[in-house]
Amino acid sequence: MSSLKVRVAFLLAFLLSTSALASSWQELARKVGESEEGRQAVIASLRKIPQLKKKLEKAIYSKDRPLALDVISSLEMKEMIPDLLLHVPADPDGFLTVAVNSMMDSKNQRSILDSYVSNLSSSGVSFAAVVAMLEPLGRMNIALKRDVLNSLASSTSPEVRSSVIYYLRIMALRNKRYEHLDLLAQFLKSAEFQLRLQAVAVGGEIGSRPGVPSIVDLKSTCEAEKTPSIRAACLSFVAVRLPSSAAQCSAMEKSLYSRDTVKVRMVFGYKDARPARFVGDRHERLAFIEKITAPCSSEKETRCGFARSHDNADLFLKKTVVKKKTHRVLLWVVNSSVGTDDQENRTDPFQKWKSKYAEEAFTGGLRDADVVMYNGHSRFGGGPDFNPPELSSSGTVDPQPYQSARSGLSKMTRALGSSKRLKMLGLFSCSSSQHFNEEIHAASKAGVVSSKVLMYYSDALSQSLSTLEDVLSG
Fold first, then answer.
1. For 407-424, how does the pLDDT look when each residue is reduced to its tens digit (9 = 90+)?
2. Backbone phi and psi for residue 317, each to the nearest 5 degrees, phi listed first
């Protein structure tokens, strides 16, 4: 072949490959979430596609819309945020707004949230966009004006009204903002039973605060439900507002502080994020430690002022005064993972020891401590769990071995059966009430703090700190 023919053939091959690449972003986009191993290679290939930004801008309102938004989010194309915000009000399914949420950082957060507040004050915003905007506004502690909330609470969309209840819950429980809780009474009269149940659940969680419906109102709403299963579910949410009697609480307090030394254990389970490889319990433990070792800002604060033992990195000590008597508090804070990469942890020989150590810290605490708290995965009812998860062929957590064996629960109930000291068990994991409470109550008389719902990691961390505060303050 002549030199000229070789050059022509090479140029033609290059043009054809470039053309194929330029038209294959949709195919690559479908592979972004297939596996963590191939993700980075796919993203690198996407970045090489000529005029990708223009193609995505055009695809946002085409049949390839979901793929385009996935690519924008995966590549963190934050330069597109100003243009995307213009499309938020007309976002038909919320995916575009969620893509914007996924790219929010400290630099663009204010402009995004300001845009959302402005949108919610306007008319004609799609229901899906409202739903996608309310959650980050709640998490970021952005207080909405009453007229805006009134308008949203009167929406014809049940999904929007449900999101308002969710927003009120986040503002109250996460941010300690208790304005506008009187709106819950309005939702108790909703035509849709799902909204009535959600309002009862939130009212039960928040407790006695100005504006929150009373126990009588919540129970009346439940007892008016005509369907037995709905009535039973509703009353179970009211039970959140019905703690043990004053006599029982007094007895628990007296028992808890009957000794000069109070033993507390906080054990973080193996907090993987499968199918992603990230494991977060080391970082959550550090966040917990930062809070408990911070100086106390007032005499009323109790979950602060701990000092770390000089020869045990997991042991923290302080003294607390309950009813004029000084008690020594020994707080163990243990996590389960050796690193933040699940794939690496599986080949690290130290991980086996770390998992066993965390599990023994938990079960040993059930036998010998006064208060034990677990912050981790419920593993479909097979937890608590301190090990790298069992995986399916697709790289996701396989529920079958956890649901069939329930080994974590078995170990927990055996330890509870031999316990002579435990006063309180906290299970800060998804739907732990449904997964574990029946078996726990059969094995132990200890008080139980658990969750009826899925738990975001920061909510679990916040609630475990609040429980510690309650315990140490008597």
1. 999 999 999 998 889 999
2. -130, 150
Q: Which helix (H) or strand (E) holds 267?
A: strand 261-268
As given in the structure block, the two tokens for residue 362 are 């938990």
DSSP 141: T
Match 């400290």 to its residue by tokens.
106
Q: pLDDT tens, 20-56?
A: 344 477 888 777 655 555 677 777 888 888 888 888 8
Residue in 77, 78, 63, 71 with CA at minimum distance from that of residue 32: 71
- The pLDDT score that the predictor gives to residue 20 is 39
Q: What is the pTM of this model?
A: 0.52
- Give the contacts of 434 (CB within 8 A, at least 6 positions apart): 452
Q: Which residues, in sequence order, are bridge partners of residue 316? A: 308, 331
Say how far apart CA 150 and CA 144 lie, in whole Å.
Answer: 10
Structure tokens at 463: 């609630």
Question: For residue 326, which phi and psi values (nearest 5 degrees)?
Answer: -85, 130
Residue numbers in the chain where pLDDT is lower than 50: 1, 3-23, 244-245
- Angstrom distance (rounded) from CA 163 to CA 138: 10
DSSP states of 208-238: S-TTSPPHHHHHHHHHT--SHHHHHHHHHHH
Task: Write out the DSSP string of 143-169.
Answer: PPPHHHHHHHHT-S-HHHHHHHHHHHH
Neighbours of 43 (CB within 10 A): 16
Run of H or E including 47: helix 36-47
Amino acid at 281: D
CB count in 10 Å sphere of residue 154 = 11
The one-letter amino acid at 392:
S
Q: Give me the residues paired with residue 331 across strands.
A: 264, 316
Closest CA to 189 of 213, 221, 158, 235: 221
What does the H/E/C string look like for 297-334? Answer: CCCCCCCCCCEECCCCCCEEEEEEEECCEEEEEEEEEE
Q: Residue 207 half-sphere exposure, CB side, CA atoms within 13 Å?
A: 5
Residue 33 has a pLDDT of: 59
Per-residue pLDDT, 363: 96
Residue holding tokens 């008319």?
Answer: 123
